[in-house]
Amino acid sequence: MHSTQVSFLSTNNFESNASICFLDSRSNGFFNSIIFLPNSIFQLWELNKKKQVPISSYRYNKIAFPSGQHNNSLTIEFKLSLDQIVDVHEKDQVITLKGTLVHHWFDFRLSWNPSDFGNITLMHFPGEMLWLPDIILYNNAHGSPWVSETTQIHVSHDGRVTWQPPVVYDAFCNIDIEWYPYDLQICELKFGSWTYGGSQLNLVHLNEDRANESQDSEGENVWKVERGVELSNYQESVEWDLLSVEGIRHKKWYPCCDYPSIDITYYLHIRRKKLFYTINMIIPCVSLASLTLWVFYLPCESHQKIQLCISVLVALTIYFLMLIDIIPPTSIVTPLILKYLSFTMVMVALSVTFTVFVQNIHYRAHYQPMPRFVKKWFIEKLGKMLLISRKTEQAQYHRTAQHEKIATMAKKNTPPPPKSVNSLFLELPMLNRSVSVKIRKPSVKAVKNRMRRLLSIDMTDDVRGCRSYILVSRKDVEEISPETVKDTDPDREKLRKAERNIHFIAKTLTDERKDQEAEADWQFVSLVIDRILLIFFTVTITIGTVLTIFSAPTMCDDREPIKIN
């Protein structure tokens, strides 16, 4: 004998007369008869004394609580079937879910013997016709917490009632943005009866045999199910990984009431997927931080160091303002991305400060003396340690080597050491008083030779002591007679004037060279400071980036999301 299902057509006013139809398996799909409901839902006429309709003859009242026959407690098996995580609104701290609420309970008024009614084992009723439990979401954020869609109810012959209405909930979720965008959220969905206490309506897990009894942090007994949410129809979210769905039944006593309050709370552990936020948020921020390093590699002569720092700072400020509209405003914690942005902005601000200092060092004038320890540490030691080549030192080395080579060749070709013009002038008066000096008129060739030797200058002493010497041999001095000296007094004055001019030129060139070398020293010090700051900022930004990003717990969380078969 085959079982039979009966479907009742929906009616707007089920207290008035309504028509129902049923299908008997023995009639091969034809309607046996049409019956009416006078004054109640299940008060039907007997048809031909065959008892083909499994309905009691008493009046059914959907307002009456369907308590058991032997006690006043009704047990409802409850479970949430999650279909989709629609969205998580961080700013509003609301999670939007779509799913189905599964209810199972027993109503002894809706039971019958299938053998007496043509093996009818299952009937379908509109939701408006039967009593429904008032299970609501306590932490509902928007809209009505009640079930808005009253779908059909399945009633079995043993009185077991199954109701599965679809729901879309906006639930409050305490969003912890400390590790945003690498955050892990735990959202609670608390379900319970709005009207009945625990002594009347006993709310339990649908899979009660899988529940493990334990105690919570307050010492209350709880019943926990690891997979408390049904995920057979779950559609995976593109933004969140679903890690676990615990269901915990709480039975608490409150001071206001003498009966317990029972609720079932589901804990959804969701983890934000990293790829989207890494590409669109972290990488641009790291790139802006990396631009700070090139400030110290850019030469001071380009006059663009300050402009580069300010440009990076403005870009970070705009990026900061964009994130404020996304992240929920809170003063409890600082999000991870804002921590890194603040760190980057501090580094950029420091780069501006240090760049101004380096520019000041680079363009210092020659009259500002360099301290001895600065020259010792930055030029002699740190410059070599940082492998910074200095062109001025190479040029000075080549000049010194060239001078030494010329001096060596001059010593080999000139046997007697020359005398300076000062020695010559000191000896001239003695020559005038000397009787043994032979007075003779010098030849034109001798005068030219003396003038040529008088105009020959050794510049080595000019660089050191800023003194010029004109070389004259003793042999030429002995050839000068008093008459010649007397005749050549204007020439001697010209020689003295030439000596003063040459001395001035040599001193000017020496001072100019010293000024250039002093400025080159300051520029070299600024280059060394730039290189030190480049290394310091590279190490600091790298360590800060790694420590900030990898401090998020989800970076070390290797748990796999729940796989839906």
UniProtKB/TrEMBL annotation:
Per the record, the major location class is: membrane
Checking SUPFAM superfamilies in the record gives: Neurotransmitter-gated ion-channel transmembrane pore, Nicotinic receptor ligand binding domain-like
Q: Provide a Gene Ontology MF annotation, just one.
A: transmembrane signaling receptor activity
Please provide one cellular component term from the Gene Ontology annotations of this protein.
postsynaptic membrane
- Provide the transmembrane region boundaries: 275-296, 308-328, 340-363, 532-552
Please report the record's description of how this protein sits within the membrane.
Answer: Multi-pass membrane protein
Q: Which intervals hold domain Neurotransmitter-gated ion-channel transmembrane?
A: 281-547
Record's family?
Answer: Belongs to the ligand-gated ion channel (TC 1.A.9) family.
Q: Which UniProt keywords apply?
A: Cell membrane, Disulfide bond, Glycoprotein, Ion channel, Ion transport, Ligand-gated ion channel, Membrane, Postsynaptic cell membrane, Receptor, Synapse, Transmembrane, Transmembrane helix, Transport
Please give the Gene3D superfamilies that the UniProt record associates with this protein: Neurotransmitter-gated ion-channel ligand-binding domain, Neurotransmitter-gated ion-channel transmembrane domain
- Protein name listed in UniProt: Neurotransmitter-gated ion-channel ligand-binding domain-containing protein
| Compartment(s) where it occurs, according to its Swiss-Prot or TrEMBL record | Postsynaptic cell membrane
Q: Name one Pfam family in it.
A: Neur_chan_memb
Keyword Ion transport on entry: yes
Every Neurotransmitter-gated ion-channel ligand-binding domain range: 59-273
Per the record, the domain of life is Eukaryota
